[in-house]
Amino acid sequence: MIAGSRTEPADLHDADLRSRAVAAARGDTPFDRLIINGTVVDMVTGECRKADVGVVGPLIASVHAPGSRTDAAETFDAAGGFITPGLIDTHMHIESSMVTPATYAAAVLSRGVTTIVWDPHEFGNVHGVDGVRFAAEAARSLPLRMILLAPSCVPSAPGLELNGADFDASVIAELLSWPEIGGIAEVMTMQGVIAREPRISGILQAGLAAEKLVCGHARGLAGDRLAAFMAAGITSDHELISGEDLLDKLRAGLTIELRGSHDHLLPDFVEALNRLGHLPQTVTLCTDDVFPDDLLAGGGLDDVVRRLVRYGLNPVWALQAATLNAARRLGRDDLGLVAVGRRADLVIFSDLTEFDAALVIVNGEPIARDGVLLQPLTETDTSALTGSMKIAPLSADDFRVPATGTRVRIATIDRPRFTQWGETEASVEDGFVVPPQETTLIAVAHRHGRADSRPRVGFLRGWGTWRGAFATSVSHDSHNLTVFGGNPDDMAVAANAVIEAGGGMAVAFEGKVTACLPLPLSGLVSGASLDDIARGFSAVRAAMDEILDWQPPYLVFKACFGATLACNAGPHQTDRGIADVVTGSLLDSPVL
Question: How many Å apart are CA 123 and CA 555, to the nearest integer?
């Protein structure tokens, strides 16, 4: 079954279109558009060969010898550039860029990305089916091809956290019936899949019954656990942790969505592929999450291609992964090749190092030139995304842990990534735990109106020494209000700034807000321009640098947004307490 079909690829089956294309290929009628003086990057043979490309409507009608045809209604001079298929991002979340779908589409289309596989589980976790419906409406109205996936983990850790909705198998089956939905999005409840728990097993069966993609999230899985995960019907992964992990999962038969959001791992991936000596057909590329300042400065999937080449990957391999391999994964035989009979999603890159897009064509229509869209894009009505911060202002005492006596043992969440349980002792003063010197406070408050919004407070270790506080309603994947800090007073200031803004993120230091980025749509995105959002996000980053000394690769700003991802192994703070998905345990209070 073709993923995310909408009216595609049936539009290429039109008899009149095919007749016109055949006539143009014979030379009896002119092309609608002709690209000359370019080098076609052949994704099958790996060759870069001089050729001209003739287009009729949305269809490639001819790839022929340079200069052998001049008859066309419109001619584009590639000026020695490289003609490739449009880039395909096989796994991503628009919400992570904190902009509307139209703003995101404008940013990436102009750079040569023509298709994305969008998992709108951030909108789904906040607004339920209405959030996914908004994504589908956006997909119908924009020239960026959006293949949507049904969010599989709403919430990501049932029973251990509470978000804004609950997608069981019946909801997933309904979403899979929509023409915009191409499959089931990353299945993150790894332990539930392996244990064959009824809820997630029912969701998987809905995907299998629909004969659509079932995508995975297999961080840290290997051996029999990986085999059990795959045996349930899951066929892809993007959560790679090393070059050897990449090779092991390729050997296992998974399609790899090699992601660019963990840059420190890319050199290891490149080394592993180069050592292998060829590009497996099951390697595709994805962005996963791109922050707004990175989107503005570097772009989307084009930036992943660019960085892989910079780290030593053959540029044709990088393009093959981003085009033909991706199209095959999606079951889209109309995409991924500059070849007769394929869809005319084409990019002219000036070179194969910087990958600057001189011209972008979608469905045979020029959409962008030299990084600038030729026509503005239509915004989708965002009224369904407003009013998501259903939480009252908080006080400093809300960020303190009550206890009796004078001395207590407390559970800690150790390490910013690959968390583990820890334990330490703490004093009690005036009925509250005094945070030990080596700890950082973390608090998660339910903000969706489905439960009490009293923050659950925990203690982190390995998160450095905080000189202020950070609050965010962008907190994967339930997106409750999450606050980090070195003291309750600054935590309350930062939290209340986010609540007042209707969502977003804020930094506080010595009782004052030093940076705030309002994200009033779902508490995740803004209707402002990419320039404005990128500037505001950069200001938040800079303010964070003033209150904390980062320790890459794990103690980095990005870690703040994934600290509550309770589906991953190890303890994580949620709005219900400290959760551990492996043991199924939940501590309401860290006091032991």
Answer: 27
For residue 307, what are its two tokens?
């960085």
Packing angle of the helix pair 101-109, 129-141 (nearest 10 deg): 40
Using the 8-state DSSP alphabet, how is residue 438 labeled? T
- Per-residue pLDDT of 250-284, as tens digits, reads 999 999 999 999 999 999 999 999 999 999 999 99
**What does the DSSP 8-state code read for residue 551?**
B
- Checking if the pLDDT of 135 tops 90, the result is yes
d(CA 198, CA 148): 25
DSSP per-residue letters across 466-518: -SSEEEES--TTT--EEEEESSHHHHHHHHHHHHHHTSEEEEEETTEEEEEEE
CA distances from 445 to 291, 433, 451, 453 (A): 24, 19, 10, 5
What is each CA distance from 343 to 87, 337, 364, in whole angstroms? Answer: 13, 8, 8
Q: What is the spatial order of strands in the sheet that 145-150 belongs to?
A: 87-92, 113-118, 145-150, 181-187, 213-216
- pLDDT over threshold 70, residue 3: no
Contact between 227 and 190 under an 8 Å Cβ cutoff? The reply is no
pTM: 0.96
The total of other beta-carbon atoms located within 10 Å of residue 417's CB is 18
The pLDDT of residue 4 is above 80: no
Instruction: List the 255-259 sheet strands across, edge first.
Output: 236-237, 255-259, 283-286
Structure tokens, 292: 């707004």
The upper half-sphere exposure of residue 239, i.e. CA atoms within 13 Å in the direction of its Cβ, equals 18
Q: How much is the pLDDT for 7? A: 59
Q: Please give the backbone phi and psi of residue 300, each rounded to the nearest 5 degrees, phi first.
A: -105, -115
Q: How far is CA 177 from the centre of its chain?
A: 23
pLDDT digits (tens, 9 = 90+) for 329-341: 999 999 999 999 9
Report yes or no: 398 and 455 within 8 Å, Cβ to Cβ. yes
Look up residue 209 and give its two tokens: 């019954």
